[in-house]
Amino acid sequence: MRVVSGIQPTGNLHLGNYLGAIRNWARMQDELPDGSECLFFLADLHAISMPHDPAQLRSATLEMAAALVACGIDPDRSILFNQAQVPQHAELQWLLNGTARIGWLNRMTQFKDKSGKNREGASAALFTYPVLQAADVLVHQATHVPVGEDQKQHLELARDIAAKFNHDFASEEEPVFTLPEPISPPDAARIMSLRDGSKKMSKSDPSDMSRINLSDDPDEVMKKVKKAKTDPEPLPSERDGLEGRPEALNLVTIYAALTDSSVDAVLADHGGEGFGAFKPALGEVLVETLRPISARFTDLLQDREAIDAILARGAAKARERAVPTLEAAYSALGFVRGDGTR
Ligand code: TYM
Fold it and tell me: How far does residue 243's CA lie from ligand 1's centre (Å)?
């Protein structure tokens, strides 16, 4: 297994990132069969697809690296790095731009969401971003990519690009790229906003009350849970009773994910309870989950040079792993590289 995944270092790590992806990263790292490897990275090159502040990008990259370590990514067992230190990602993107089709990119919902009404004014990077994301996983021959629901479309695209490239420039017996498999948690692949059960929890939501940040203190967590939008009905004892109640379903989903249970089991236990009782119970579980993470996070941030060193070490290993695939792609496309590779 080659497990590869990334996160954009913009804004805070929130509960959606954690339950949808990062907790799975840590679990896959802990349960990895012999001979397998995990590579986790900060998708800093993706940040320039939207207006950004360079100083903020620098500090957000270090902070996100610290947050990942605080969540259990062990830099001695996983390769943790930032994209900008592994130029093979961007280089492969250019090669893949020849294979990706404009029609495929036009279908990407994230581009439509992020460009909004100002499509003409969006950066070209925002449009071609999914090709870089394909390069991120293909350059490392990823077999498994743990992501939340919202990234599955990008992973499908990566598979389409890999399949077309293999078909056009390689052979079935000796493909250049492995087709990666997205992995999402069954219940928590899409954690919703606390203010609106029809929108996903997101870093870019202007209201901080819509999300739980992993850096929120216990009072903030409790306040956000208590103010979370709900309806006046008590919890049902079965899942069918959550039909048309997206906010209630979201809170039950979060509780189930945090306690390693299922929506059905939580409803069997809490059915009949009103939110006046369920919300404080959920708040407690959240506070207890976040307590050790935020303590480690604060500790790690005391030594920013140590985080720099972790990223530099991870990048050196990632470069080593990326070079053979990049060279194979150059060679398959017919480039002369001057070192005997054809
Ligand atoms: P990003 O930074 O938006 O999110 C990081 C991870 O968190 C998941 N996630 C969620 N899961 C459940 N509920 C939510 N509300 C929620 N919000 C976010 C995302 O699905 C993701 O797994 N394009 C990617 C970063 C990336 C990448 C890659 C990922 C770049 N290259 C290669 C995988 C492989 C992104 O913007 O994720």
Answer: 27
